[in-house]
Structures are given as C-alpha cells and as structure tokens.
Amino acid sequence: MKVVHSPLHARHDGGKELHRGELVPCFEMPSRADFILQALRREGFAVGGPREFPLESLLRVHDAGFVEFLRTAHAEWRAVGKEGFMLPSGFPARSLRRDHIPAGINGKMGYYAFDASTPIVEGTWDAALAAAHCALTAAAHVVEGERGAYALCRPPGHHAGHAVYGGYCFLNNAALAAQYLRDHGKKRVAVLDVDYHHGNGTQDIFWERSDVLFVSIHGTPETEYPYFLGYADERGAGEGEGYTRNFPLPRGTAWAEYVTALDAALDTVGGFAPDALVVSLGVDTYEGDPISAFKLETRHYPLMGERLARLGIPTVFVQEGGYAVEDLGSNVAGVLKGFLARG
Amino acid sequence: MKVVHSPLHARHDGGKELHRGELVPCFEMPSRADFILQALRREGFAVGGPREFPLESLLRVHDAGFVEFLRTAHAEWRAVGKEGFMLPSGFPARSLRRDHIPAGINGKMGYYAFDASTPIVEGTWDAALAAAHCALTAAAHVVEGERGAYALCRPPGHHAGHAVYGGYCFLNNAALAAQYLRDHGKKRVAVLDVDYHHGNGTQDIFWERSDVLFVSIHGTPETEYPYFLGYADERGAGEGEGYTRNFPLPRGTAWAEYVTALDAALDTVGGFAPDALVVSLGVDTYEGDPISAFKLETRHYPLMGERLARLGIPTVFVQEGGYAVEDLGSNVAGVLKGFLARG
Ligand SMILES: [Zn+2]
Ligand SMILES: [Zn+2]
C-alpha cells in the first residue's frame, strides 16, 4: 500500500493550547507524523510525496472566503504588529450574530473558528495545504487502481467544516479525498470515521448529500469534544436525509463493545454499496491516549483493518487524531497490515 | 449619592486569560474595585453594602438553567477531579448545534459561554451574586426616591445575556437594575451603555421589549470585542423593534467625536421619556486603557456626568469595564461628580 507523506507538516508547530489551567504545546505535534512515518518505513511500506493540485480542488468542499482566510490569516496577524500563534478571543456562539464577518483579524478569526485550542502559526497554511495534497494524492492512487492507499495527513482534518476550523483541523482532508473520488468516476463514496472524536466537519460538508455517506463511531458528545455535534439523532437533511449515521459510545468503551458498533457501522457502509471508501483513521481510541477515554489495545487495530478489508471496497486511509505519540506508529501500521492481510 | 459595594467581589480572583500568546491574570482584577472604592471614599461618597434579594430576582432577566449552571459550575468541575479556573474548550459556534445542552461540565460550560477569556473560579458565583445585589440595591435606592445611586459591581455584567456569559461577565447587573425599576413602578426604563465594548448581553435581554430602551456607544465590532453584536443595523425585533440603538465608533475616537455620538444617544434616551435611567458605566473609553482604543481623558468624565444629569431622570449607575486600574477611581468619580454638580 502506498503511503503519501509531506515533510511540510512540520511547519505547523509552535502553537500552544490550554490544558488543565496551563498553556502547553499542542498535543497535535510534529513528532506524531515522525513516529508514524518511522513505523511504516520499518514495516516496509513505500513512502512517496504528494502531487500538486490547483487551489480550486479545495473549493469543492470548502467556502472560498474561508480558504482565503486560512491562506492569509497569519500574514494579516503580523501586518497588525502581532506575532506568535493566533487564538480567537470570541466566537459567534449562542445569542450572537453569525451573518456578518468582522473586518478585523481577531473578529474574523473568531467567526471562522469554534474553539480556542487550534492555534494558527506562520507555517499552518503550508502544512494544511500539504496534508490536503497528501489526501488528494492517496485518493488519486485509488482512482488509478490501487486497492488501498494511506495519507499521513498532519494537521488532521475531520473537525474542519465547509467554512469552520477547530479541533486541530483546518482543511478537511477526508472530505477532499471523498470529493476527489466522486469527481473521478466513483458514483457513491462512503466516509467511515473511527477517530475518538466526532467528525463534525465531514458531517457538516456532506449533510445534505446522498452521494456521500458519512458514518462515525466516537465518544459521546454528551461528555466528549466537540460536544455540539455527533448525536445519534443526526441523520442528514434534504437529499442527505438518512446518509449521515452516528454511533456515539460512552467513555471507557473497550474492544468488546466497540466492535459491536464497528460491525453496525460496517453494515451501514456495506448497505450503501459504495464504489470507494474513505477511512478517517484516528487512533486516539487507544487506551494510552492522553486526551481520550476508549480502551482499545494495540492488538485490536489489525482486527479493525481486517474488518475494513472484508467490505471489499477500494479504500483511502486518511490520518486523523491520535496523541499517544510513541505508540501511534504501531497502531496505524496495525490497521494497514490488518487490511492488507485480508487479500 | 449612595455608593453600593460588597467586599465579596474579591472572591472572583485567580483566573487567567490568554493575552498576546501568554496566560496572564485577567485584566478584570480585584484591585479595580479597590481603586474605585478608595477614590469615591476620598471624594466623600457614602458607601453602603448591598441588601439581600431572592434568587428569583435573577430569573426576571436570566434563564433558570443558566443561573443554576453558574451557581454549581465550579463545584461540578471539582467533583470530576479538576481544580483551578475553568475555561471552555469548544463552543456552539457556526455549523454546530445550539439545541442540546451536553451532560458533562466541559460541554455545558461551552454551551453557556461565548469566549475563552472569562474564567470561573471557586468564588465566582459569590462575587457575581454580590455584584447583582449591589445593582439591585442601587435600583432600590432610586425607587425609594434618590436622584442617583452607584453600584460598584465587580465582576461587570453587560456582556452576560439571558443565558450566556463572556467578556468577564456572568450576571447582567445593569439589566437586573433596569428590570427592578420596571417591577417597582417605573413604566419606561432606558439603559445607556457607555462602556468601550458593546453591551451585547443587555441588548440580548431586552431585544424584543418596548418598555426598556437599550442604547449603546462603543468601539465598532468590526474590529472590537465582542465582534458579533453591536452593529448600527441592530434595532430590536417584534415589540422591541426600534427600542435598541447602537452607536459604533472607530478605534481612536477622541472626546470631540465621542460627544457627538453621546449627544445623539442622549437625544434618543430623552425622546423615549423614561421614568428611570440605568447607565452601564464602563470607563475603558479612557485613553490609558490597556485593552481599548478610544482617547477620552480624565477631564472628560465630569462632562459626561453633566450631560447625563441634564436629562433630569433618576439614574442608577452600574460599574462595567475599565482596566487602567490606577486611574479608574478618578474617572468614575469624575462622572458621578459631574452628574451631581448639575443640580
Ligand atoms: Zn480525535
Ligand atoms: Zn468594556
């Protein structure tokens, strides 16, 4: 299986987030990608760089003003004399307007964001764009006949919506891959999101569409980030009614219960009979993850990969979360090897 | 003029906010109230404590679930093993649901908040409740015949809406005072907000009412906090259509231009012919304010007070912002003395 990786991910570095009353370097840190890359190389995977894609590829799933904001945000920040990482100080939350984009950079940043844990640094755009290109390249490999391909995306993408960023995500790599598959002959595409956190951005993007099925298994938003999307009663709207399916699970869920939800999710995917599958592959379901609360063990990831392979659908794997840095590699490699083992 | 003050304000202390990439103690700090109190004592104002009011007084302008959240939030935070100050990590901003309150404390906090600069500490509820009682007591003084009364409220209140907190504000002291006046014989009440920042919370509370006029002069939300409310096209809705008026002004506004907006605002208030007036008295319009950008000088605050007195309406002053700590006292005293000078 081809692995697509760009060293540009490392430019997204130096931001901090608030954790237990202290400002700490983001859990979403460059070494995450390094550990995954090392493990995949050790396992013999062939690693290649991304191709280039026109900016218009991004506009297939994202708002043009939003993309322009991401592209220019840090330059605008520096232009008004600020430095370091950018975090918004106010949001269009309850009781506030959402119909006007403020002119100043602070207000604009709040308009496009939904949390204060997703810093933008000088290199964020370069890294996010490279991650998007990795996902598009992996999708291209599958269009060109590969059974599976893996995009080592960093920053991750599944929290980024049509015109919002947050949850360490800027551009929605998985949604871009799914749209690329749609635009290149795949009539029906499913996205299965197995990250610990709900893929609110992907759901937002495909909410009213019936050509892309979105299925997510995640920690319940009653207690887990992103709190305001990912409940079981969300099933899509309009044309998309019935094409969004959420499987929220309680904190502490271990493999025995997880696999029941996974099998139900896979049945849903199978029932849709997609021509291609995108897996939003977060491994923060791991018992050692510092910010999540499922109890999957390293030995379970190959089992997940096998089950995915049983669907028999060409599959693009897109890296999402996972913060137990030193164990990321084995868990990701486990899924991919499990997938390949089932020929 | 009677001054109402409670030492309980000091219990709201120890929180931090993000400022230029560093976590710093909140600009809204206990010494603010100490400096104001000192200056007013020096000027010979009589200082008294607040009366007690039943919890139901708060529910005249706030949502019951919101008040219960504020009352129990820090205990709930400690109950799940956390300590220190609470800041939310995700908000129901654009693309997310606002119709469900998450069960866990992190999600619930994000649901009720609209920024990540308003920490809740163990003593926040005691302080916010005492500030509300100060405002209600000052309103009672006016109901009982005083021409003017001043509530030294801390934390401030004008950013707190019917069911949201933010901008250093938890309970809306000015709205509570206005409602108290309405409930005790004053048929028409005006709120004039002269804080540097738009009083989004007060506007939210009275948006659909014609018995309380809300008028605000403030830094334009195009560039200034709270960014998502306070534009000139916001004029109320339903019954309240025409009873909200905003005067946004650009950064750098000095007295010469400020006074034009002030006079227009006073004309609007006068035209409403209210039986009582509440002034949301922020003095962060001061040239020395560290987080604001108007250019009013200490000598202008008595002029503001005189102009307010010219209306000839019984007036409750409620302290809002102002962060140039050592100059707060003279600026606040200036307004009150200017008001009293015009007999
Ligand atoms: Zn995650
Ligand atoms: Zn203010």
Automatic annotation (TrEMBL), chains A, B:
Look up the domain of life of the source: Bacteria
User: Which Gene Ontology biological process is one annotated for this entry?
Assistant: epigenetic regulation of gene expression
SUPFAM superfamilies referenced in this protein's UniProt entry, alphabetically: Arginase/deacetylase
Keyword check for Transit peptide: no
Where the record annotates domain Histone deacetylase, the positions are 28-337
* N-terminal signal peptide: none
Name what cofactor the protein needs: Zn(2+)
Q: Which Pfam families match?
A: Hist_deacetyl
Question: Per UniProt, which keywords does this protein have?
Answer: Hydrolase, Metal-binding, Zinc
Q: Which GO terms describe its molecular function?
A: histone deacetylase activity; hydrolase activity; metal ion binding
Family matches, as Gene3D superfamilies: Histone deacetylase domain
Family, according to the entry, reads as follows: Belongs to the histone deacetylase family.
| PANTHER family, alphabetized | HISTONE DEACETYLASE 8 (PTHR10625:SF17), HISTONE DEACETYLASE HDAC1-RELATED (PTHR10625)
Q: What is this protein called?
A: Histone deacetylase family protein
Annotated source species: Pyxidicoccus fallax
